[in-house]
Amino acid sequence: MPRTLRTLFLTPIASHQHCGLILLIALAFVAVPQFDYNDWERNTEGLFDDLHIYDNPNAVYPPWGLILLWPYYLLTSPGSRIASVLVVGWLAARRRWTVATFLSIVFSPFFIWTMVLSNIDVLALLLPVLLWESARGKRWQALGWSASLALLLIKPQGSFLLILYWLWSERKHWRALVVPLVVVALLTVPISLVGQPPLVAQWLDNLRHPSEDNQLFWEINNVSMTETLGVVLAVAVVAGSLGALAWLRRRAGGVWTQNHTHAALLLASMLLAPYTSNQSVIVPLALVPSGASVALQYVILFTGTALGIYREFDPWWTLLIGLCALWLYRPAEAKDRLASATDAITPPLRKPTTRPARPPGRSSPH
């Protein structure tokens, strides 16, 4: 591979050239073909119905969606795709991944699936992870954490374990949570109580008595394991599988990073919720990317679909794909490869330098 291309694709994202390439790729997603009735249209059409939103039996987003979905609407369908790709680019840049790793995410089958639907999941579930960690310790921490929690509550079924984990992790610094929790309460509680009956009651009624369209969607596009196994058995299977994987990984000498934890919690939330679409699965997978994982995703999806067994066992395939992604993500090995590629194009320093020790209280490596 020519040296210039090696620099562009196999070194950590840090330069204007890297960012420019990511922006061009994001803009190219404007041309992604769409289904006739994509998720952007389905999820934003009720914004103009105001308090009558749940007169439409297909409306199943929570009442605070009347507030929080407006930025998604204003982005437009093509704009939401651009924004989703840029969020993945931000993730890759923060993690010091390469453009090659970024490409493995945006050309994975689950990401392509979210893009042909102009789905909100990357913006509602992955962006909050970046906001939460980026804001930590900054002057805008309260704002960042407020936005992060609010966005996650657009899709609480896919994020409830992550929210609980964050709140528990910050229990010793609970004062830092006061402003974010107050902001979230102001965004969710008042809007839920307006209307006659209250919007929250109308929302729950639509969930308990789904429309024919939603019954079809929830049957053919649902990774929920509780739907098929029941709550107790599903919890045992998911917790046992993820716990065993973490134990085996540590026994094998591998590291368990913050990315592993976030991905595992999101995956578990999706598998244990009553309903989660396949579109959401890209979020935990994006946090633990690898070329081998993406190749495996394509093999499982194409083989399972060709044999007619993927949809019937969707939750089990999702669990398998998630476990494999968690196992195959090896950030330490990736850094070694990146160091080798960088050494090939970067002249050595004249004098060795001593890297300062990490200050106490920093988060674990990603």
SSE inventory with pairings:
Blueprint lengths: L2 H8 L5 H13 L10 H6 L20 H4 L1 H25 L4 H8 L2 H8 L4 H15 L5 H12 L7 H10 L5 H19 L5 H10 L3 H9 L5 H4 L1 H21 L6 H15 L9 H6 L3 H16 L7 H15 L2 H15 L21
Task: Provide a descriptive summary of the structure in words.
- By secondary structure, the chain is mainly α.
- It is about 65% helix and about 0% strand.
- The protein has 20 helices and no strands.
- It has helices spanning about 5-10, 15-30, 40-45, 65-70, 70-95, 100-105, 110-115, 120-135, 140-150, 160-170, 175-195, 200-210, 210-220, 225-230, 230-250, 260-270, 280-285, 290-305, 315-330, 330-345.
- It is globular.
- It starts with a helix and ends in a 21-residue tail after the last helix.
Summary keywords:
mainly alpha, 65% helix, single chain, 366 residues
Question: How much is the average pLDDT?
Answer: 89
Count of discrete alpha- or pi-helical segments spanning 4 or more residues: 20
For the largest beta-sheet, the strand count, sense and barrel status come to:
none
Return residue spans where pLDDT drops below 50 for at least 5 consecutive residues: 333-353
Strand content: under 5%
- Tell how many strands the DSSP assignment holds: 0
Q: Which series of helices and strands comes N to C?
A: HHHHHHHHHHHHHHHHHHHH
Helix content: 55-70%
Helix/strand structural class: mainly alpha
> Tell me, what's the shape?
globular
Report how far apart the termini are. Answer: 28 Å
Radius of gyration over alpha carbons? 21 Å
